[in-house]
Design brief:
Chain lengths: ~450, ~250
């Protein structure tokens, strides 16, 4: 990961300045401060990842991130007002909302009453201020994302986030929704880190949304660290709907025990540049994990999904299905790496990435990688990219359906394949509606 | 006024090869016309050009449906004007539920004609009634359009769509192929139920058998991209006995 960058870019210099100015004020002392220091040093040595760094080949962050914005200031009253409608994508779901504005957990806007037995929720900043031993230990532990520079920057600068734990055996019926909202009128940078722990046999639906105003080039570096105990079930759905000038980088680290059922969906419509990296490690046999994605992009949007699934032990099943709908000059990147360690026999891993190109200027890059060190495994990958099927469109039109509506039906069905996998029906409906909204907006632009 | 009037229609495919070489055909309200002709003679091409499929170039001629010039319209506009094509090879559309498809199609046509949308109960009632008449299992309609349907089921689904959309002029392109004897009767009954003094049909087929169930008023022989002979229903029997050898040369 060490790519020498002889001359520091403006953004790299600005990050160093910000670090020097703010590091003493960041929450957490002792080992946490040391960990931050080490993470920043790692970043300083490597620089921002560029196209020569294999994992960032298609998303040259050094080039895409011309400036590094200052850390977002504390949220003021105006910010609270602007954040009012945030998270409405899941308004009909009946969720427990936990609101983070400009990277800061706002308990007044969050639903903290009537916590289900066995559910605990707290702020990361508070846990660090109180030197919470579990949180300190968790942040100090080795992570599958340790070598990644975006994650290192997150470790260095993380300000706040949520610490959520579900006790063993507890099924939390009401989905938890992490509402991330940027409200600044000036561009700033937000670094959030949340920790989620499911005890053995627990169950949770975790929703996440990220949004902010159009036209402001704010920057988000978000990380979510998830540990799922044996026999637990977790479904995570992340909606990336950042403003149209925003830069969004998210790192999700997931460590799964045995016989876990983990399902993940990345649904992305927003942001000028977004990168979702997911590192999953299976530590116990009998686990099933599904990583799905749907990106709906237009204009000059760039969205990258980079997944690393590490079968550290045999007998697990992984499935990845990514769908990108690309209009305008947009670009989607899918990088899927499946690692099967020498003893991980009976691993079953498949990934597929499909792009629907609505314009000649759109681009889809797929890079599947299999690193297999065991011999008794079933692994595979597939990728397609193409325009809408003209014959299908004609069939619909021949029945009286206008061209636009026919296209909408076909695009919905393309994306529907992954949305339909979501277990929670109201979440499914919310995502279908978000897809429809995107398609309607596309129609509006064309009519203008 | 005639229902459909095709005058000297000529069309080529993308590679420039001319397939339709001057088709003339008049269908009056209430008539059923059968078109028979050898493989590759251009019957499906005629159906596609009439319904506005991409990939063909109209080189000349005119098509009027109820006085409306079809060739200037998009496929959806032609459908709303009252044209229906039962495809020789119906498409499978994964991810689009059959019910959504039927409803979208019916309402799109109604909207274009300035009629109000169907209410959900009214829509469901119509679909259930027609499906029952065609012996289509309602469970099948819960699946995506034609996905996992047998060849015969797909053809019956075409007849269902026709029954629901109630076109002025329906073209059935080999709707009989792939149907077993019972299904053939059911599909034919579906067509016969729709027969009315103001509706017209063009039935493209290779087999006289279908015409025993859907009795045509007029039979045309199609060869090398045009109609080379026209007669009554007895012409179908003659073709069945003699084949197309005479016409291959005549064309
Ligand atoms: N899109 C196309 N591109 C090139 N050639 C085409 C295309 N569509 C049709 N053709 C050719 O045009 C000719 C007529 O085809 P068409 O399908 O209309 O025949 P048909 O009379 O319907 O035959 P069948 O009885 O076998 O269904 C054939 O030679 C066919 O190969
Ligand atoms: Mg044909």
């Amino acid at each position: 990961m060490k790519a020498a960058t002889p001359v520091k870019s403006e953004a790299e210099k600005a990050l160093a300045t910000t670090w020097a100015k703010t590091k003493d004020a960041l929450p957490g002392k002792g080992s946490v401060a040391a960990r931050r220091e080490a993470a920043f040093e790692a970043f300083a040595a490597a620089g921002l990842p560029n196209r020569r760094v294999e994992e960032w080949k298609y998303t040259d962050l050094r080039n895409l991130m011309r400036e590094a914005k200052p850390l977002a200031p504390p949220v003021g009253p105006a910010g609270l007002v602007r954040a009012q409608g945030a998270g409405r994508v899941f308004a009909a779901v009946g969720v427990r909302r936990l609101v983070l504005i400009d990277g800061q957990f706002i308990s007044e806007l969050s639903d903290l009453a009537d916590l289900e037995p066995g559910l605990s929720i707290g702020s990361l900043a508070e846990a660090l201020a109180a030197n919470d031993t579990d949180v300190v230990a968790r942040l100090g532990a080795k992570s599958p994302a340790d070598k990644d520079v975006a994650f290192a920057l997150n470790t260095a600068f993380m300000g706040d986030g949520l610490v959520i734990a579900v006790a063993p055996g507890m099924q939390i019926a009401r989905p938890i929704h992490l509402v991330h909202c940027y409200t600044g009128e000036e561009a700033a940078a937000v670094f959030t880190r949340s920790l989620v722990t499911l005890g053995g046999g627990a169950g949770l639906t975790l929703l996440e949304s990220h949004e902010g105003p159009d036209g402001i080039d704010y920057q988000v570096d978000n990380a979510l660290d998830i540990v799922v105990g044996d026999g637990a079930r977790l479904e995570r759905v992340k909606v990336g709907a950042e403003g149209d000038a925003a830069l969004h980088v998210s790192t999700t680290v997931v460590v799964l025990g045995r016989e876990v059922e983990f399902r993940d969906l990345l649904f992305t419509t927003g942001g000028a540049v977004s990168r979702n990296q997911v590192f999953v490690r299976c530590d116990g046999p009998g686990t099933t994990l599904t990583l799905d994605g749907a990106s709906l992009l237009k204009g000059r949007q760039h969205s990258d999904a980079t997944l690393v699934v590490d079968h550290a032990i045999g007998g697990c099943k992984s499935r990845e299905t990514f769908k990108a709908v690309l209009d305008g000059e947009s670009r989607s990147v899918f990088q899927g790496k499946t690692v099967v360690r020498p003893d991980a026999q009976k691993t079953d891993g498949k990934m597929a990435s499909h792009a629907l190109l609505l314009s000649n200027d759109a681009e889809a890059d797929h890079k599947p990688e299999l690193e297999i060190f065991a011999d008794d495994v079933v692994c595979g990958h597939g990728a397609t990219a193409g325009a809408l099927d003209e014959d299908l469109k004609f069939y619909l039109m021949a029945r009286g359906i206008p061209e636009r509506e026919a296209e909408t039906l076909l695009i919905q069905s393309f994306v529907g394949e992954v949305i339909d996998q979501v277990a929670d029906e109201s979440v499914r409906d919310a995502l279908t509606e978000a897809t429809t909204a995107w398609l309607d907006a596309r129609e509006q632009v064309e009519l203008r | 006024m005639s229902l459909l009037e095709i005058k000297n229609l000529q069309a080529s495919v993308e590679d420039g090869r001319q397939i339709l070489n001057g088709v003339d055909l008049v269908v009056n309200p209430g008539e059923v016309h059968a078109i028979m002709g050898p493989n590759g003679s251009g019957k499906s091409t005629l159906a596609h050009v009439l319904s506005g499929k991409d990939g063909y170039e109209v080189l000349g001629g005119e098509v009027l449906l109820d006085g409306v010039d079809l060739l200037g319209l998009e496929p959806d506009e032609r459908a709303a004007a009252g044209l229906f094509l039962a495809f020789q090879y119906p498409m499978e559309i994964p991810g689009v539920a059959t019910m959504t498809f039927l409803r979208t199609a019916m309402n799109a046509q109604r909207k274009k004609r300035g009629e109000p949308e169907l209410s959900t109960p009214e829509f469901m009632k119509r679909v259930r009634e027609q499906a029952a008449k065609l012996s289509i299992d309602p469970e099948m309609l819960k699946r995506p359009v034609n996905v996992g349907f047998s060849g015969g089921e797909k053809k019956r689904n075409e007849v269902l769509q026709m029954s629901l959309l109630e076109p002025k002029l329906a073209i059935l392109d080999e709707t009989d192929s792939g149907l077993d004897i019972d299904a053939l009767k059911i599909a034919a009954e579906g067509v016969n139920r729709l027969r009315s003094p103001d509706r017209g049909f063009i039935v493209i087929t290779h087999y006289q058998r279908l015409l025993e169930h859907i009795v045509p008023d007029i039979v045309h022989v199609f060869s090398k991209g045009r109609i080379v002979r026209t007669g009554g229903k007895e012409l179908a029997l003659e073709l069945e006995a003699k084949g197309y050898a005479d016409y291959e040369e005549a064309a």
